[in-house]
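Lab notebook, bench 4. The sequencing result for the construct came back, and we need a structural model before the next group meeting so we can plan mutations. Quick request posted to the team channel:

Model the 3D structure of this chain.
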Amino acid sequence: MALAAAKPAASVSKMPPPLSAFRSFPLHKRPAFDWHVHPRNFGTTRSSGRKHAGCDLYAPTGTKVLAVADGTIIGFGRFKVVEEFPDLVGAIEVEHEDGWIARYCEVARTLAGALKVGSSVKAGEVIGEIGHLMHKLPIPSDMLHFELYGGWETGSLSQPGVGAFHRRADLLDPTAYLDACAPPA
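Done. Here's the predicted structure in token form:
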């Protein structure tokens, strides 16, 4: 199942959400590896020249993934990361208050429980689990790749070949948001 193009809320501000918008970390516990450093951090340059569009939270396959705030699931399915990774990965897209979107990537092929596109979710609710990406990387590939979007643009979140990140223009750096709600080390 392919992801549908994410649509913004009817009236969306071009301001990023406040840090307080995140009410839960996307995992039950802090990962052992820091998301602030290469290769896990936002904006690091990949071998292809593409910039990393999110923060990688390394955790074992099967680790529960939590909604960071109340919202509605607007997309779920498989998508091609970029040309250099032909394997498809899973993603859950959740639109939150004021139209901002969190995308939880490298998730398993099913949503948690009876959730489906259109379901409402609450902050801290289990929405899925980490899947297994591939064996081709020289780094661990079991992780939650977490992306954040302002919600003021339209169309697919992934846009291969567009800009340095190959993502929609309202892509935001999620680092400070993750920091604001991270469990203690």
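Strands lie at 55-58, 64-66, 71-82, 85-96, 101-107, 120-121, 126-129, 143-149, 171-172.
Will bring this to the meeting.
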